[in-house]
Structure formats: structure tokens, C-alpha cells
């Protein structure tokens, strides 16, 4: 594990010369996104942040933005309202950002929730949790990639489950989990995180000038475990209240440490070689390199190449996932 004190030392070195100048946070109104955003603003650097969130979070987010600007007067936080489970709205948010910026240094993606409930589709015909955990994230990356490639040290940080992939986790014959019995918590969450890794691994090979990171944050008490529950799931709600929620509270990082660890992931040269100088062990990507590729980082802030799984996924899943994802997103590009 990268020691917390070493992460704090690294983060203390963040300055206007090595910090992201323009950042986009998708899902930064709560959970790890919010914690990381606060940690980034607290560095005191001059930066502009686009904070994208659903309409229902606007009131509390306005208060949060005021808090951020009181912490750092050099930080400009721009609220962008968008229900990004709808890909058409995600596209509009991207178009807004593209109309205002000539480059983006950091894209931080955390949208989604634990899909404990029944399958529910958006008006666009996509299961809501899959839209948030996969399709919207990829859409933001593809739309903003040209601006990322114009930055000096561009980085995409996708927070879900990097390193937890298994060859059995993904269903290439039913990528949208529409077949009877396909959708459920034990199948959906592993499926989504593997989809993210498969797509990002392929994308990273063609864009070596951008650092791609898929992070597994471990236990963090974000509250998202409750979001996917249906109102009539009384037994499951009781089980979460009685067992899972206390376990999360017991094992979780503090909010402060979770934010600082992801700030480190966003800025340290340990991943890709650019950023805040790092004298410790360099991360290794899924290509086996330290300077390019997709970095799978765990809650210890260590990277894994997952060498027993990634090559098999490339052969088994990459062609199907790449083609299917582009077909789904084509109307929104």
C-alpha cells in the first residue's frame, strides 16, 4: 500500500505548475467525486472546474460550490445541470464545455450506484445504472478526448472497480443485460466494471498521450448503496441497514483520506510519468509499461496489470464491446 503520509507529502507538492488547470467532474456532487473535488480545490491552485450533476442535486450543490470558493478564491467552479443517465443530456453538457474550453487537463468520472433493484430503463431504452456506470462515462470521454489531447498532462480517472475484472464477469452475448435472468446485483456490477476496463484498455492503446486510470476505491461510505433500492425491497433494505451499512462504516476510509488518495491518483507522476514528481514505485499499465496504457489502481493506490485476465478479455470481449458501445453511442456523438 502507498502509505497515507506519502500521499499527503505528494499532494503537498501540487502547485500551479503541475495541477490540472481545467477539470471536469461528472458525478462530483456526492461521494468520491465530491471528496476529491474538495481536496483538489483545497490545494489553493488556480483552476476552473465544471461540476456536472442532475437537477435534483442543484440546491445542495450550490451550497457546496460556495464552500469551495471560500476555501480557494482562485478556483472557479461552474455548475452544469444535466441528467447524465440520459445520453442526450450528457451530450449537451459536453457540447457546452467544448464551446468554452480549448483544452481539459482532468476528466473525473464517478456516476453510478449499486444496482440492487429491478431493471429500470431510461426513456432512451438503456438500463439506468448501466447508463450511469458505463455509457455516460464513455460518452464524456469520447466527446472530450480532443480537448484532453491538447493538454500538457491530460488524465482520465474512472472510479468503479479497476483490477477486479474476471473473464466470467462479462456477458458478451448480452452486453445490455436484457435477457431474462441476466440483470441483478451479482451480475450487473461486475459486468459494468469489466466493460469499463475493456473499453478503456482499447482506447488507451490508440491515445498514448492521455493517461487513463480505472480506480477501485475500496470501502468508502458514499451512501450510494441505498440509491439503487426499490421502495418495496423491505427485506433487502433491512439487511443493508443491519449488516452492510455498519460494515461499510467500520471498514471505510475517512472522507479526508478517500479524497486525498484520489487527488494523488489525479496528479501523481506514479501513473504515466507526468505530474507531481514521485520517487516511489511507478505504476504499471495493462500493457506492461510505466509511461502509457490503462492503469488499474486499487484502494491501496497500487496498480495491477491483471495479467491473467486482461489478455483473455482482449480476445474474448474487446471486439464485441468496442463495436456495440459505438453503435449505442452513435446517435449522441
From TrEMBL:
GO terms for molecular function: oxidoreductase activity. It comes from the Eukaryota. The keyword Cell cycle does not apply. Gene3D superfamilies: NAD(P)-binding Rossmann-like Domain (3.40.50.720). InterPro entries: NAD(P)-bd_dom_sf, SDR_fam, Sec_Metab_Biosynth_Oxidored. The keyword Endoplasmic reticulum does not apply. Keywords: Oxidoreductase. PANTHER family: ALCOHOL DEHYDROGENASE-LIKE C-TERMINAL DOMAIN-CONTAINING PROTEIN, YALI0E05731P. This is NAD(P)-binding protein. It comes from Didymosphaeria variabile.
Amino acid at each position: 500500500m502507498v502509505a497515507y503520509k506519502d500521499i499527503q507529502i505528494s499532494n503537498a507538492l501540487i502547485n500551479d505548475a503541475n495541477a490540472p488547470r481545467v477539470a471536469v467532474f461528472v458525478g462530483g456532487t456526492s461521494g468520491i467525486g465530491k471528496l476529491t473535488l474538495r481536496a483538489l480545490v483545497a490545494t489553493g491552485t488556480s483552476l476552473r472546474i465544471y461540476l456536472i450533476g442532475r437537477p435534483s442535486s442543484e440546491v445542495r450543490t450550490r451550497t457546496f460550490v460556495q464552500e469551495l470558493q471560500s476555501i480557494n478564491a482562485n478556483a472557479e467552479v461552474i455548475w452544469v445541470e444535466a441528467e447524465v443517465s440520459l445520453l442526450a443530456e450528457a451530450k449537451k453538457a459536453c457540447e457546452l464545455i467544448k464551446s468554452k474550453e480549448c483544452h481539459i487537463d482532468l476528466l473525473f468520472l464517478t456516476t453510478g450506484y449499486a444496482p440492487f433493484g429491478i431493471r429500470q430503463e431510461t426513456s432512451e431504452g438503456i438500463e439506468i445504472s448501466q447508463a450511469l456506470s458505463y455509457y455516460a462515462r464513455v460518452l464524456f470521454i469520447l466527446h472530450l478526448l480532443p480537448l484532453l489531447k491538447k493538454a500538457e498532462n491530460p488524465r482520465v480517472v474512472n472510479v468503479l472497480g479497476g483490477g477486479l475484472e474476471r473473464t466470467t464477469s462479462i456477458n458478451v452475448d448480452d452486453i445490455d443485460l436484457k435477457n431474462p435472468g441476466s440483470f441483478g446485483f451479482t451480475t450487473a456490477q461486475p459486468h459494468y466494471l469489466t466493460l469499463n476496463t475493456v473499453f478503456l484498455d482499447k482506447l488507451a492503446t490508440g491515445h498514448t498521450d492521455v493517461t487513463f486510470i480505472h480506480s477501485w476505491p475500496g470501502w468508502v461510505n458514499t451512501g450510494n448503496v441505498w440509491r439503487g433500492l426499490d421502495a418495496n425491497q423491505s427485506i433487502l433494505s433491512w439487511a443493508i441497514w443491519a449488516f452492510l451499512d455498519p460494515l461499510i462504516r467500520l471498514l471505510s476510509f475517512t472522507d479526508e483520506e478517500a479524497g486525498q488518495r484520489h487527488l494523488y491518483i489525479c496528479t501523481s507522476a506514479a501513473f504515466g510519468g507526468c505530474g507531481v514528481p514521485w520517487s516511489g514505485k511507478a505504476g504499471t499499465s495493462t500493457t506492461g509499461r510505466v509511461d502509457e496504457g490503462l492503469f488499474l489502481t486499487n484502494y491501496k493506490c497500487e496498480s495491477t496489470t491483471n495479467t491473467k485476465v486482461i489478455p483473455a478479455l482482449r480476445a474474448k470481449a474487446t471486439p464485441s464491446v468496442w463495436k456495440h458501445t459505438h453503435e449505442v453511442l452513435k446517435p449522441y456523438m
